[in-house]
Amino acid sequence: MRLHLNTSAAFDAPLIPQDQAAFGPSVVAQVRERLARVPHRPTPLHGLPGLAASLRVRAIHVKDESERSSLGSFKALGGAHAVIRLVLREAGRHLDRSLAAADLDDADVRAVAAGLTITCATDGNHGRAVAAGAALAGCACTVFIHAGVSEPRAQAISAQGAHVVRVDGNYDDAVAAANREARERGWHVVSDTSWPGYEEIPTWVMQGYLVMASEAIEQARTNDSMPTHVFLQAGVGGYAAAVAAHMALVSGLAAPRIVVVEPERAACLLASAMAGRLTRVAPQEPTLMAMLECYEPSLIAWRILERRAHAFMAIGESEALRAMRALALPKAADPFVLAGESGGAGLAGLMAAAASARAREQLGLGPDSVVMVFNTEGATDQDRYRELLARVEQEA
Question: Which CATH architecture fits 75-205?
Answer without folding.
Answer: 3-Layer(aba) Sandwich (3.40)
